[in-house]
């Protein structure tokens, strides 16, 4: 559903973009890995590319190093149809790197090189405010809250987007090794909780934020706030649960052979945002929302069937093939 001039509404994704170094062999530790493949990543950037690959209109706002890796990442965004108007380059700091261990079950462990990396140094005065004001959906994570000046840039961008009428979408995307402590992570992730209208957490994040061992409705609803329109809890291979003011439920998963779970949550979020950006009434219509979440589950599932996040993000035709096969 496009806007009147035929141009789709804009989804702006804010935060980090980095390079994951993924072992050429699964199921070994970093020290045992014989080699690594460069894989562009960073959850907010993955979401932007997921949106564009599904035919939506996306822009990324963040800071990269003025180095070969930084320019490579900006190029990857552009090649994938994502606007790079919101990118700044830092001449004094490098683009962030992460070494990722792929366990034999496809889950991941991370070792980060950010001391500091360019994404942490984005300042409020460097933000492309015109771009942010033109967003119909403004999406972000929590890694950009860890240190100044990026934290202030994040808060400013959120405020400007909200004032301009954007729907605020939040996926905390917990990466504990990046935070000074568990307590600080929880405190800062929750510090902006009541601003977002759409929030997606994984089952692990739900347990971390609530201190509960359960992922039941009662635990999820303890995170509810009055500004929220939709709370989503993704359950990996078990599908997802959804909560709104008026209804709640769960949507079944798609069973696939998972190779690498990297980017599955970002693919899910991109699919959701694509389907609500032009029609927020979907959030109040359970039948339509369930269809959207089924589509999002399919996107997430497909993303786990290939190594790396960005190469694995699906097109609409790939999603339709999976939807029609069931």
UniProtKB/TrEMBL annotation:
Its EC number is 2.7.1.4. One of its GO terms (cellular component) is cytosol. InterPro entries: Carboh/pur_kinase_PfkB_CS, PfkB_Carbo_kinase, PfkB_dom, Ribo/fructo_kinase, Ribokinase-like. Residues 9-315 form the Carbohydrate kinase PfkB domain. The keyword Nucleotide-binding applies. GO terms for molecular function: ATP binding; fructokinase activity. Belongs to the carbohydrate kinase PfkB family. This is fructokinase. It comes from Brassica oleracea.
């Amino acid at each position: 559903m496009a806007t009147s001039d035929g141009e789709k509404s804009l989804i702006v994704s804010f935060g980090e973009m980095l390079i994951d170094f993924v072992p050429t062999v699964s199921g070994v530790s970093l020290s045992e890995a014989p080699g690594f493949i460069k894989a562009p990543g960073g959850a907010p950037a993955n979401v932007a590319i997921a949106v564009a690959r599904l035919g939506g209109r996306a822009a990324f706002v963040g800071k990269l190093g003025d180095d070969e890796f930084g320019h490579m990442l900006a190029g990857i965004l552009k090649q994938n149809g994502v606007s790079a108007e919101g990118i700044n380059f830092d001449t004094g700091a490098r683009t962030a790197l992460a070494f990722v261990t792929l366990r034999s079950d496809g889950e991941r462990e991370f070792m980060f090189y950010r001391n500091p990396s360019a994404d942490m140094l984005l300042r409020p005065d460097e933000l492309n405010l015109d771009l942010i004001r033109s967003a119909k959906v403004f999406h972000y994570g929590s890694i950009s809250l860890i240190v100044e000046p990026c934290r202030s840039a994040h808060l400013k961008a959120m405020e400007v987007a909200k004032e301009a009428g954007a729907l605020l979408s939040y996926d905390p995307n917990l990466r504990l090794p990046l935070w000074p402590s568990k307590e600080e992570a929880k405190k800062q992730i929750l510090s902006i909780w009541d601003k977002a209208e759409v929030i997606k957490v994984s089952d692990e994040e739900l347990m971390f934020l609530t201190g509960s061992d359960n992922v039941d409705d009662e635990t999820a609803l303890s995170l509810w706030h009055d500004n929220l329109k939709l709370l989503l809890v993704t359950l990996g291979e078990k599908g997802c649960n959804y909560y709104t003011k008026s209804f709640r439920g769960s949507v079944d998963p798609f069973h696939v052979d998972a190779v690498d779970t990297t980017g599955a949550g970002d693919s899910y979020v991109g699919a959701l945002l694509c389907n609500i950006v032009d029609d927020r009434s979907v959030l109040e219509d359970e039948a339509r929302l369930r269809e959207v979440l089924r589509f999002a589950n399919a996107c997430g599932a497909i993303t786990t069937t290939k190594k790396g996040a960005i190469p694995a993000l699906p097109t609409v035709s790939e999603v339709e093939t999976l939807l029609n096969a069931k």
